[in-house]
Design a protein that fits this description.
single chain, mainly beta, Methylamine Dehydrogenase, Chain H, 4-stranded antiparallel beta sheet, about 0% helix
């Protein structure tokens, strides 16, 4: 069993196929050729209302929440074979977030409780035991948030007005500090901090009568170090947003605007406007990739110039960026792999859902919430 997790202490998890919370850097994966017949590696029927998938070492971590019974689960599967290693019942919850893997074969899942607020649970991936549960006793929390692993602590966002950040000891669940990082007029229902080069960055959405902002907080104690006002436009309460950072450039977005912020001098290049969907963009360090109503927009980070439109009807989710390809799912139109250079479709399968990629094994995972099916394809 330990061989399966041998690389766990040095691997970061993935969310939507990209390295989670470290800037969504592209996956180092070469998709060599397009096969005439798609190679199905394995399938497994779990349960309906699957939430998110994460690759950690050679395991696939899948979360689920039943909205009627408030039963939340974590499924731990062998990512190479589909074998079920553990099924773990989590604290009763209205919703949960992607599991993250870090620190001595441990996985961490944040949930929104039905009674006491937000929970963070640590699961031993070898034994399947819940090692500890951290509770932020905040009445009124009702949206899931993205837990983020740092170099020292696990960072748990949330709070009554969605404005707080909790630093949690990864080994015993002690809450080290609780910091208010947003004003109480903060409008984002769902937010996740981004850890980049041992620094923590946050992005607030604009609200009715308030302006959005971007800033950095002290990772050890929580106070804000600096922030800037983005003066972006409120367009309803947005979800899923978090800063995307690579090569000292941060991408922050709303439904109508996206900003490229260069850390050196905090220069703000021209604003990119568009009808963005509620999904975090991806980047390869040169271009940003946004999920929009008419497809995936490839935009140059430094200038904001539109480079290419990858036409995709009802595209959904965060694009997965590899060395030469772009992977995106859709609402009802399958999952598509585009060639980044030509813009043409290299591969398409009928399944759709939340995506993850195992770069070493060259496997694409598609997790469908409605059917409860997990499908693994060789790519």
């Amino acid at each position: 069993m330990q061989a399966l997790f041998a690389s766990a202490p040095v691997q970061w998890p993935t969310f939507g196929g990209n390295t989670a919370h470290t800037g969504f850097i592209p996956i180092d994966l070469n998709i060599e050729q397009v096969m005439d017949v798609n190679k199905l590696v394995w399938t497994r029927n779990l349960t309906t209302e699957l939430s998110y998938s994460t690759i950690f070492a050679n395991t696939l971590l899948v979360t689920s929440t039943n909205s009627f019974t408030n039963v939340s689960k974590l499924f731990v599967l062998n990512a190479l074979t589909g074998y079920m290693i553990h099924t773990i019942n989590l604290t009763a919850a209205d919703s949960n977030e992607p599991a993250i893997g870090r620190y001595e074969y441990m996985a961490y899942v944040q949930t929104i409780g039905t009674v006491r607020g937000i929970y963070l649970q640590a699961i031993n991936l070898i034994t399947g035991d819940i090692q500890w549960t951290a509770v932020a006793d905040t009445q009124g929390s009702k949206y899931p948030y993205g837990t983020t692993p740092g170099s020292k602590y696990i960072y748990m966002p949330g709070g009554v007005y969605n404005e707080e950040l909790y630093a949690v000891d990864p080994y015993n669940g002690s809450i080290i500090y609780r910091a208010q990082v947003f004003p109480r007029t903060f409008a984002c229902d769902w937010w996740t901090p981004t850890v980049y080069n041992k620094r923590i960055f946050i992005h607030s959405q604009p609200g009715q009568g308030t302006l959005g902002g971007f800033g950095e907080i002290n990772p050890d104690t929580g106070p804000e170090l600096w922030s800037i006002v983005l003066n972006n436009t409120w367009d309803g309460y947005s979800t899923y947003w978090e800063p995307v950072i690579m090569n000292d450039v941060a991408l922050v977005s709303t439904r109508q605007e996206s900003f490229s912020l260069q850390f050196h001098g905090l220069h703000v290049p021209p604003i990119v406007k568009g009808s963005f969907q509620d999904y975090t963009p991806s980047t390869d360090g040169v271009s940003a990739y946004f999920t929009c109503k008419d497809g995936i927009h490839q935009v140059l980070i430094r200038s904001g110039k539109l480079q290419r439109l990858f036409a995709c009807k009802n595209c959904a989710g965060q694009p997965i960026v590899t060395n030469h390809h772009l992977i995106i799912s859709s609402n009802g139109n399958g999952t598509i792999i585009f060639n980044k250079e030509s813009g043409q479709i290299s591969m398409q399968v009928e399944e759709t859902g939340n995506l993850a990629v195992h770069p070493q094994a060259k496997i694409l995972y598609i997790i469908n919430s409605d059917t409860g099916m997990v499908v693994a394809y060789a790519i």
